[in-house]
Amino acid sequence: MQFQNSERLFELSQKRIPGGVNSPVRAYLSVGNRPVFLKSAKGPHVFDVDGNSYIDYVSSWGPCILGHAHPKIVEAVKKASEDGLSFGAPTEREWELAEMIFACMPSMELSRMVNSGTEAVMSAIRAARGFTGRDKIIKFRGCYHGHSDGLLVKAGSGALTQSVPDSGGVPYDCVKHTLVAEYNDNNSVEQLFTANRGEIAAVIVEPVAANMGVVPPKSGFLPFLREITKNEGALLIFDEVITGFRLGIGGAQQYFGVVPDLTTLGKIVGGGMPVGVYGGRKEIMETVAPLGPVYQAGTLSGNPIATAAGLAALRLLRSTEGIYEALEQKTKTIAEAVSETFGERVCVNRIGSLMSIFFTEQNVVDFNSATSSDTDAYAAFFWHMLESGVYLAPSQFEAMFLSAAHGSVEIERTCEAARAYVKTESLK
Ligand code: KE4
């Protein structure tokens, strides 16, 4: 494969865009920093500016669960566009989408559309603080909830005391109310509640962690979070930006049978267009303007094109018989082939159509075991797969996302490429 046009465009884009990309992970820093520029995508494939084609497992980081440029979603967007691109006024489709979200996730009695997962999470936390009158929140190390200041945080030296910013430009004052617990570690949560009794507004959690690679919740972890937040007068926020409509039509809350107080959505709910949603119990969401004192707004929120794409995607997901079972089966096939091929050298975590291949001999069950992975080994595997026409996430700590468009041909080619990697390795 040759990448001349990608290299040329990367040079040019770095002159006008920080790092040449509009989101850092796209720069391929952790796998060697020479990103591929894409030109188009269709079904399970993406096509780069040098004419190379790839079986895609990034799936735009999750939204394209139905495959790229699904004809019904494209049609819905085209049709909506002919009626105008944005009004800044209420439309019928926003109500339809809110109703559909409620039908899929009955915990979301009221929901508000925004333009990204970051905005959804930022707003949900503000609503939780406004409803409880408390300032502190608990998040988990290794979970990512977008780039709002208060969530760019890491545990301080005294993990039970202060957190520190995990980004330049974030003043300590923006993170002093954010406490950091360990994913899948009930005790770390209990300690924080004991040390901050009556002050914690909410716990926010990825019900399946997918930003340290895929780390499913251990049995009982989510019910524990539900219980302790109830007992402590705090709210439970499920950040379902990735898991929403991915693990099933009802997301992780249906999959695990744990009902949060607030939920954030993104990615799939927009069908590929810029959409975030936050919502939950009526009494909480009634604190949000114009009903209540919690302010949140957005010029393009509920935009007619985004709602058309989101509705088309959810209608397809709700009406396609067996779509989630098929997604699960395809992902399982790849996961089993990789485990069989690599043996003890990797840990493959999979849930539904989300998976990660960790280059570590440890069982990856939390942040520490996830970060024990050999990122150089992942990078070597990434480039082999890319040159073999398989487009994985350019980072060990992201998920692989399958789509309904991936067929047996794509699955077999992916498994073959992984097997070939081990063969070439053994020849070195
Ligand atoms: P956005 O603001 O990127 O739409 O959503 C933020 C967000 C919130 N919550 C969860 C669980 C998320 O995974 C994300 C964003 N996910 C990353 C991929 N791991 C987006 C990719 C990127 O940053 O370019």
Descriptive account of the structure:
This protein folds into 2 domains: 4-69 and 321-427, Aspartate Aminotransferase, domain 1 (Alpha-Beta Complex), CATH 3.90.1150; 71-319, Type I PLP-dependent aspartate aminotransferase-like (Major domain) (Aspartate Aminotransferase, domain 2, 3-Layer(aba) Sandwich), CATH 3.40.640. The chain has helices at 4-14, 71-82, 92-104, 117-132, 172-175, 186-195, 221-232, 251-256, 282-285, 304-319, 323-342, 367-370, 375-387, 408-427, and strands at residues 38-42, 45-48, 53-56, 110-114, 136-140, 153-155, 163-165, 178-181, 200-205, 235-239, 262-265, 276-280, 347-351, 354-358, 390-391, 400-401. 48% of the residues are buried. The radius of gyration is 21 Å and the shape is globular. The strands form 4 sheets. It has a 7-stranded mixed sheet, with helices on both faces. It has 428 residues and is an alpha/beta fold.
Number of individual domains: 2
CATH architecture of the largest domain: 3-Layer(aba) Sandwich
Structural class: alpha/beta
| Cα radius of gyration in angstroms | 21 Å
Count every beta strand, where a strand is a DSSP E run of 2 or more residues. 16
Strand ordering within the main sheet = 4-12-11-10-9-5-8
CA-based shape: globular
Our estimate of the beta-strand percent is 15-25%
- Main beta sheet, described? 7 strands, mixed
SSE order and pairing:
Blueprint: H1 4-14, E1 38-42, E2 45-48, E3 53-56, H2 71-82, H3 92-104, E4 110-114, H4 117-132, E5 136-140, E6 153-155, E7 163-165, H5 172-175, E8 178-181, H6 186-195, E9 200-205, H7 221-232, E10 235-239, H8 251-256, E11 262-265, E12 276-280, H9 282-285, H10 304-319, H11 323-342, E13 347-351, E14 354-358, H12 367-370, H13 375-387, E15 390-391, E16 400-401, H14 408-427
Helix pairs in contact: 2-10, 3-10, 6-7, 11-14
The protein binds ligand KE4.
Ligand KE4 is lined by residues 23, 25, 61, 116-118, 121, 144-146, 206, 211, 239, 241-242, 266, 276, 398.
